[in-house]
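I had to read the description of the data format several times before I understood it. For illustration, here is how one protein appears when written out as sequence plus structure tokens:
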Amino acid sequence: MSCYLTGFGASLPEHEITNAELAPQLGVTPEFIESNSGIRMRRWVAADESASTLATEAVQAALRDAELEASQLDYLIGGTLSPDYQVPGIAPLVQRGLADCRAIPTLDIRQGCAAILYALQLAQGLLATGAAQHIACVGAEAQSKGLDIHPRSADLSMLFGDGAGAVIAAAEPKSNGLSLRVLDVWIASDGNFAEDLIVRAPGTANGAHWFGDDSATHGAMNGRTVILQAVRKLGEAALAITERNHLTLEQIEVIVPHQANLNLLRTLSQRLAVPLERFVINVDRFGNTSGASAFLALHQAYAENRWHEGAYVLVLAFGAGFTWGAALLQTMRLRKVSNCRN
């Protein structure tokens, strides 16, 4: 049984934070932030918003787009690095927020920016076994609530934004309009780099202190290692998945990458020899939305009609762990078979 993406949704906080507003608090200039990341602004949640509220809104939007009711969902997969609580994850909270949603299984994954790839492969497997017919996959972040807004953390805190994106994965394509068929998902991880991109607290590795002693050390990123490995691994993933599906990168109409850093995307474009115009980009407006990033970019491509029928779409993502990979999708339209006889 195949896996089709039949609905797309997104939710973004209203509050925009420009570099001009943020830079003085971080002890840098607006130009420094933009030149090092490509980010000009980002969205941050209000006090009464959380990852689960954004995720719920995104799933509701995706259900409307798929012309489904929440009662028709069989499974819900959520991905976030900034959950409402340590336990439970956001998936049960999203289920609670969906009117008439049944007592379906819910699952949280912790693959950071690569959440969309792991969610798609899980959905593909669940649909193939017949365990589900309709699955909501959502990535959501409210990272602003955990940022250290001081010069000591400028290199991290200047990057991150909040938002949520969702897709509906189904066993059958949409009855009207284009669907995206999931042809293949290629994912990998390498725990040798686990501490190069890390949020240390809360965690049992902090000894007797669950939350650690110094909030400024809770988050850490070896930026050079992350950039170098991301470009290398994403390039390898793009080639691996196209080659095993007997395609070339020239045949890929749209590339949907996670939105970590505009400089990273430019370098990846050069490495793949694919024009940047074929990349979906929103990091300049939304910042790095981590687990929501590629979901939001996919929603953007859908909303902007970036593909035509039969087009190949490549989703690329690299996240904490390190985890990374690619998903190969193809647009298609349901063809009704006539019962008329000649």
In short: Residues 337-342 have pLDDT under 50 and may be disordered. The radius of gyration is 20 Å. Residues 223-244 form the longest helix (22 residues). Residues 179-333 form a domain with the Peroxisomal Thiolase; Chain A, domain 1 fold (CATH 3.40.47.10).
